[in-house]
Amino acid sequence: MEFLIISGMSGAGKSLAADILEDMDYYCVDNMPVALLPRFAELCLATRGRYERVALVTDVRERENITGLIDALDKLWDQGLEYRILFVEADTKTIIKRYQETRRSHPLMAADGVNLVQAVERERKAMEAVRQRADYVIDTTSLSTKKLRDQVLETCL
Hints:
By secondary structure, the chain is of the alpha/beta class. It contains six helices and five strands. The longest helix has 18 residues, at 116-133.
């Protein structure tokens, strides 16, 4: 079974990467609570081939300490499940521009009344431990959707 964790910066293109993988016949789940990752992996394995390619998107939307994700990844490894991590990022200026274009709020903006720049920088620091564990890092700062698609295909096939 191929098990891929998609993580990274909010606004960097994780959901788009998941859409691309879904087109490649991955079963994709977006925003699953990290505490459920080990159990979900067990369920996928129990289907004996029904879910051969699985991709999970996880990030700071849960607003839990990122150690919850690290703990879940450790549990997956302890279960003997090999997984890969795709980390998607972009520079702060690009992420801010993307948020301004969509009029959506960054998931960390509600916390402590921080502004968008502070939220992005806070997330970048929080996600560093996951980035360090990543098997692949894609910087989407200057990528078109087609170029992102090409990089995801090249990286994950």
